[in-house]
Input
Amino acid sequence: MDKTQLKSDILNFLQNNTTGVICTVSPAYFAHSAAITFFVDTDLSIYFLTRKASNKYRNLGLNPSISLTAFEEKVLPTSVHIDGTAEIIDSEVKKMDIKKILIERSWNESYLPPVMRQEGSEIVLIKIVPQKATWFRFIKNSREAELDHINLAE
Output
C-alpha cells in the first residue's frame, strides 16, 4: 500500500475509534499502560486529557516517549499502533476545545471518564506527536492479515 493511502486509512480509523491504550515509561523503566479517550487531527497528532496527579503525566514529565494502540473488535479486527513523543499543551483554550470534542464524541452519554468531569488546572492536555505507525487488519474471506508500517517523522 502506498504511503498516502496508508496514512489516509490510519487517519480515518483513528477518527472513528476514539478510545485506546497508551503506554508510558515509569521512572523505574517499567511500562505503564492506561486507557484513554482521544481526538486526532488531520496531521495525525493525537490529543488526550489527564490529571496532573496521574502516573502517565508524571512519567511523561521524565520521558516523553509514548505509544498508543487503538482497535476495534469486529468480524475482522483492526488496530493501529502509534509510537511518538508527548508534548504538554499549555493553552487553556485548546484544552477546553479538545475537552468539548471528547465529551461530544463520548461513546456513552450516561458515563464520562473521570478526567472529563474535572475542571481547572488539575487537568492537562497532552499531544502525541506521531513518529511511526503500524496498521494491522485481517483480510476479508481469508485467514491472512496485513501489517503495514509508516514512518511519520519524515
